[in-house]
Amino acid sequence: MFGANKTKIITDENKIDEVLTRGVEEVIVKEHLKERFCSGEKLRIKLGIDPTASDLHLGHAVPLRKLKQFQDLGHQIIFLIGDFTAKIGDPSGRDDARKVLSEKEVEENMKNYQKQAGKILDMKKVEIRYNSEWYKNLGYNFLFELTSKFTIARILERDDFKKRIKDDIDISMLEILYPLLQGYDSVALDADVEIGGTDQKFNLLMGRKVQRRYGKPEQDILTVPLLEGLDGVNKMSKSLNNYIGINEDSDNMFGKTMSISDSLVRKYFRLLTDLQEDEIDGMRKKVGMDFNPKNIKIKLAKEIVKMYHGEKEAKKAQENFERTFSKREFPEDAKVLKVLKTDKLIDVLVDNKIVESKSEFRRLILAGAVSDFPNKKISDSNEAVGGSERKIKVGKRVFVVLRLK
User: Fold this and answer.
1) Which family does the UniProt entry place this protein in (predicted)?
2) What's the CA angle centered on 301, arms 367 and 399, to 5 degrees?
3) What tens digit of pLDDT does each residue of 142-182 get?
């Protein structure tokens, strides 16, 4: 399941302090965890991700990068894929219940999770687990035992449940069960530390309580900030379409990064790159003098693309961006689609996955975001391709050539 790990445990206090402070919101209990790190003890550090979507994005990269830092200190990383709990859905931060996923949907979503996580972690040294390993063999007696150890009042203390009760929005029994199951994962895995976003604090603390009820040592907790997405307001999420995917091609990754709010640039540097604090602060001081803030964002985009695609692709993505958006040129390597003149534009773009769905295409049309290059807006969502080669621009960053067969 995972390779033998004889890595030496690093106990350098300066390195440990940096890992416990940079890009960290809260540590429970910090003094206890630091003492354990400095002792040279090899800790089991858990991160759980439910496969509710097929792609990991830069929001997921924040805790994954923290895991990598602990891995570099020599500790055992546990990458838990919640294939069982994904069918329930985490209620954290939700104003309503998540859609219940089928087993087939979960299997499809998690196909490439390990490969995507491997862009950040050394997966040969990672313990990869699925929580269906224990839940599929546990019957109703286990459920009776687990739920008997807790009260509804304690579960309903969480803020998102309080808000839903106040707004008269239903809370399912499955959602109430979810934090107990996530907590039991820590029992099954003998977790010493669990990492999660700030919205996961209730679930992470529940892990400590479940461990205590089962006579296990309580895990320490480390929370990381949530990363706002491209809208500059909401948490990065595929469902909100405000995300930058770990698997996105270099041009899209670069272009999307360039579109983030200026107010988020420093946060992205701190959470998503390895640049030192003094270098980040130095760039910040240049803004407002004779330094163009756009250059800082270009550096950020290059740093992010370099991490997932390499130096060469990062440089190429910058050149493509500047040629396309600064010089208003049509990209030379735009995708070419062979079409018939009677084909409908909406069918061509959806069938070739240029846009995700017909409803998404119609939304883009209404927003004036689909055009014949350079800027002739397309207003008819049922328009046919027509008789000549067309260069189509979709949104800010997607370009495609339609060429007759």
Assistant:
1) Belongs to the class-I aminoacyl-tRNA synthetase family. TyrS type 2 subfamily.
2) 40
3) 888 998 888 888 788 777 788 888 888 888 888 888 889 99
Model confidence pLDDT, tens digit, residues 126-140: 999 999 999 988 888
* Annotated binding residues for ATP: 238
Confidence (pTM): 0.78
> How far, in Å, CA of 378 to CA of 268, rounded?
35
Superfamily of 250-326 according to CATH:
Tyrosyl-Transfer RNA Synthetase (1.10.240.10)
Q: 13-224 has which CATH code?
A: 3.40.50.620
> Closest by alpha carbon to 116, among 208, 37, 189, 51?
51
How far is residue 44's CA from residue 191's CA, in Å, rounded to a whole number? Answer: 5
Cite the annotated binding site by residue number: 238
Per-residue b or e along 357-382, where b marks 16 or more CB atoms closer than 10 Å to that residue's CB:
eeeebeebbeeebbbebeeeebeebe
CB 239 within 8 A of CB 203: no
Any idea which residue has 């420093």 for tokens?
A: 266
Handedness of CA 166, 171, 175, 179 (dihedral sign): positive
pLDDT in tens, 344-394: 888 888 888 888 888 888 888 888 888 888 778 888 888 888 877 888 888
Contacts for 276 with CB less than 8 Å, ≥ 6 apart = none
